[in-house]
Specification:
single chain; two-stranded antiparallel ribbon
């Protein structure tokens, strides 16, 4: 595992563990904590460290590969790609996802009417 990266799972925040792994690794790549060609922790290593099933980590790594942030080489591991072109696009998506996840969590925790909130949000953004 990369020395400067501490991945943790917070079971109280409402996000599934695989999504938390994706978000934290994506942030680390965007912040250049992980550089091009750096290896990610093995699926087994990270699953043991986090106390999650290996399939949870594998799902996160697959998603990161689909985003173009990592490349998995069978038998060798997962490595950060040369992703300079993807950084801006991914950073925008990360910000959007984080905002949506925070709002979704707040709505779930307070049992607010999500349809009414969406309607008011559209109105506030002059999109109605």
């Amino acid at each position: 595992m990369h020395n400067n990266l501490q991945i943790t799972i917070d079971y109280k925040n409402g996000l599934p563990p695989y999504r938390q792994i994706i978000n934290q690794i994506t942030r680390a790549i965007l912040a250049n904590i992980y550089q091009t060609h750096d290896s990610l922790p093995s699926i087994r290593e990270l699953s043991v460290k986090l106390g999650v099933a290996p399939l949870t980590v594998a799902k996160a790594y697959l998603h990161l590969e689909q985003l173009g942030l990592v490349k998995t080489k069978w038998g060798k591991g997962s490595f950060v790609t040369d992703n300079r072109k993807l950084k801006h696009k991914t950073r925008q998506a990360e910000i959007e996802n984080e905002l949506i996840n925070q709002v979704s969590t707040m709505i779930r925790q307070t049992s607010l009417n999500h349809k009414r909130i969406l309607k008011r949000l559209k109105k506030n953004l002059n999109m109605a």
